[in-house]
Amino acid sequence: MQRVRFFARVAGLAVVVLVGVGACALDPQTEGAGGTTPAPVGLTEGASGASAPPTPERSATSPSAQPSRTATPKPSRSPSATDKPKPRPSRSAGCPQGEHQRAVESYLSRLGGFGTLTVDGTQSAADCTAIKKFQIRYGISPASGRAGPTTYDVAKRLAGTDVSRCRAGSRLTFCVDLTRQTVWAMRGGRVVLGPTVTRTGMSGYATPAGTYSVGGRNPREWSNPYEVWLPYWQQFNGGIGFHETTTYLHNGAIGSHGCVNLLHRDAVRLWELGSIGTRVVVIGRRPGT
């Protein structure tokens, strides 16, 4: 009887051990049994956010079945991401290329003062630096070095401004080209400021062309009808004058109520140059007014 009890205990212990091993093997969270693995952190740019399909080197049917790296893939197998050729590195890492690259390179080369550019329509480190410098100078945001629509528009207007159209003579003259929305100052046939960008009167408030003179100045003028401060105010035609803009200058959907809006640095410089009696010549007409 003792021998029978001994064998019964041994058989019971064997059953317990086998049941425990089976429970671990049927864990529903293990790979291959319907479970998922977390997506990797730090997906490359352009990824959709879902984890990428496993590459051939990682998707073996069993842990010991490792495919050869030199093996030829079967015709029915779709190529993986690792089979595709890698894109050629950009000549200017981290600096995006815009749709107006070549034109902006050409305009900035014509304007000068922003560095050496290669007019080939391909972004380079030198091109990026020059375009950023241009964007910072003329208040274009963001100053990313990308030759986008605003950068193209500003560069084209500045490069197309003919300063000789302003009949300045020998005295200091502030010149406004309404057509190209640019401003510059001349004395004795020489440009002493600009050309630079401006935004003049919107539809219904068009800035009138003509010849005027500065009649009033105030470093910080208060506008009664519009209840806004006008920094570096220089009046030249009734309630119309030069002043620093209080909004983003390159928002073409809006405009002034006739005044000539300027970037801060240009408003300051025009204030330093001007005085009561300074001649003002306004030519052209703003498109859409």
Automatic annotation (TrEMBL):
User: What PROSITE patterns does the record point to?
Assistant: LD_TPASE, PROKAR_LIPOPROTEIN
Active site (record annotation): 243 (proton donor/acceptor), 259 (nucleophile)
Which residues belong to the signal peptide in this entry? 1-25
What is one GO cellular-component annotation here? Answer: extracellular region
Pathway per its UniProt entry is:
Cell wall biogenesis; peptidoglycan biosynthesis
Q: Name one GO molecular function term.
A: peptidoglycan L,D-transpeptidase activity
Name the residue ranges with Polar residues bias: 58-81
Region (Disordered) residue spans = 31-102
State whether keyword Cell wall biogenesis/degradation applies.
yes
Q: Which UniProt keywords apply?
A: Cell shape, Cell wall biogenesis/degradation, Peptidoglycan synthesis, Signal, Transferase
Q: Where is the L,D-TPase catalytic domain?
A: 172-283
A biological process term (GO) from this entry: regulation of cell shape
InterPro entries cross-referenced by the UniProt entry: LD-transpeptidase, LD_TPept_cat_dom, PGBD-like_sf, Transpep_catalytic_dom
Q: Does the keyword Transferase apply?
A: yes
Instruction: Output the SUPFAM superfamilies linked to this UniProt entry.
Output: L,D-transpeptidase catalytic domain-like, PGBD-like
Task: Please name one Pfam family that this protein belongs to.
Answer: YkuD
Q: What is this protein called?
A: Putative peptidoglycan binding domain-containing protein
Organism per entry: Micromonospora humi
**Taxonomic lineage of this organism?**
Bacteria, Bacillati, Actinomycetota, Actinomycetes, Micromonosporales
